[in-house]
Amino acid sequence: MHGDVSMTIDVVGNLVSHSSGVGRPAMFVLARAATYSALFIGLLLLFLPRRILSATGVIQPAAVGAWQVAGMLLGVSGAALALTCILTFVFVGRGTPAPFDPPRRLVVRGPYRLIRNPMYVGAGLALAGAALFYQSIPLLGYAGLFLVITHLFVVLYEEPTLRRTFATDYDAYCRQVGRWWPKL
Q1: Residue 146 is part of which domain span?
Q2: Taking the model in full, what pTM does it have?
Q3: Domain count, the chain
Q4: 79 Cβ partners below 8 Å, 6+ apart?
Q5: For residue 46, what pLDDT band results from cuts at 50, 70 and 90?
Q6: If DSSP codes are grouped into helix, strand and coil, which group holds residue 178?
Q7: Residue 63: other Cβ atoms inside 10 A
């Protein structure tokens, strides 16, 4: 499906990823991915949840208890998973999470070797962690809505697009790796 990735510095000092003899300025791809991810995270994972909390009168807990610790652990785990996926898209797939600037190679490494949509799972975990931290049912509802909309996006847009782009490689990947849960 793809070869090994190595990094070098080109003549003008750009970090370039190489795979199968083809190089792309990895720092340029990383900058694009960071920009798109910041917009996505800023809107869907920070701004809208903050608005939900504000609209429902939920405020920062006065003390950090077991619920808050559990929420922080879940949220940090989800954020770390999502960040790992973004970096995997950049350095293995040579693209970004944005549908209009996707990876140029089928990404089946890192978290993608276990499930096909770990980035969305990470975002959902981060939202669920925030809901747990604030003990907010409306925020938990938003996390559920996020996952339902994401599922529809994956099934109706992403998977057909990946099938057209990567054909038999993607079909083989789908047979081996579950959409949301690892296959045993």
Answers
A1: 41-176
A2: 0.79
A3: 1
A4: 122, 126
A5: confident
A6: strand
A7: 5
